Amino acid sequence: MAFEALERIAEEELSLRWERCRGLMRTALPGAGGILVFSRMNIYYFTGTWANGVFWLPLEGPPVLLVRKGIERVRLESSVEQVFSYRSFRELPGLIKEAGSELSAVAAVEMTGLSWALGQGLDRHLKAHELVAGDSIIHKTRAVKTPWELAKMRLIGARHDHCLRELLPAQIAPGMTEREISVQIWDVFFSQGHHGLLRMQNPGEEIFLGHVSAGDSANYPSVFDGPVGLRGQHPAVTHMGYAGKVWKSGEPLVLDVGFGLEGYHTDKTQIYWAGSAADIPHQPRQAHDFCISVQNWLAENLRPGAIPGRLFQHCWEWADREGWSEGFMALGGNKVRFLGHGIGLAIDEWPALAKGFEDPLEEGMVMALEPKIGLPGLGMVGVENTFEITADGGRCLTGNDFSMISVSGT
């Protein structure tokens, strides 16, 4: 049977990614002769196919993709020339050598791409090789997007904004439950091509659609590494919205929902107010305006050379001076100490806008900025939008209107 790939990333595009990764290895891991990649997301990034296997990127010589299953699909979709099947890690050195490369004496490894058991197996079968952690190299490689990736993310951001600010308001109203609102979000998202899932790279973390939180749901205790609380569907499925929580008049509705298309994502939070704009009380209006000011300042300063930790510290101290420290980035145990994160193939990419992140920002990085404020007894207000880092500052990919949207009852 003759099939055609739905999309095939050109070797020239993949080569840009390989060379950035190699450059980072030479600087940060000068003893390593290459890197072994195991997670499907990172294999896709380097090869263009969602393969079950191992990718070897040497400092010199041809990359090699080894797969456990689906080699026909891999050859259909990937521009990598050296592709082989394998069954055991013990075969890796021989197959890599057969491909015209060499598994170096010191090899970087994507350690978070393996379970503990598989990691022990790899170590056992590669006793002759010293394995060193290479995860940070991959994170930093992916952080700077190529022009090909940026074109995708700009399209995704435009559709994301169109859905949340233009299509959705006509389909939701006070009196609906969080779950009913979740269904309406999926309806408009799918109409615009959403691929139906959101991916995270932090091991064990999950997300589906995002957070749909009406009123005090946004302050409900959360284990998710983000400021927005939520009841979720059930203690075993803490995503989307709860069928028993109704969005009531005089409450904010927080939709912290990502949009995904062709593997990539943007992140956006939109606040809706149940009632007229004139009825929004002073405190939530003032808090929301403060969050917009923080986002705008951060966007202005998202320039090559800026230090994420310093941007974070400036805004954290600013919130304290303005009297928002209690609820800034959530209340109580929900509080998180970051203001944004990288985004691309995963929602939670490197770097974070947080203390301890001292590597300068680079042009072509994409970050989600999400200053928010939790208000006791009411819920949460604030913003989140996705920005491309340019020489002139952050360019918003998810729209330019950050106001609350007022929605009247039916």
TrEMBL record:
Creatinase N-terminal domain mapped to chain residues: 17-144
Keywords, ordered alphabetically: Aminopeptidase, Hydrolase, Protease
A molecular-function term among this protein's GO annotations: aminopeptidase activity
Pfam name, any one: Peptidase_M24
Entry keyword Protease: yes
Domain Peptidase M24: 152-391
Taxonomy, superkingdom: Bacteria
Cited CDD domains: APP_MetAP
Keyword Secreted appears in the UniProt entry: no
Name assigned to this protein: Xaa-Pro aminopeptidase
Organism: Desulfonatronum thiosulfatophilum
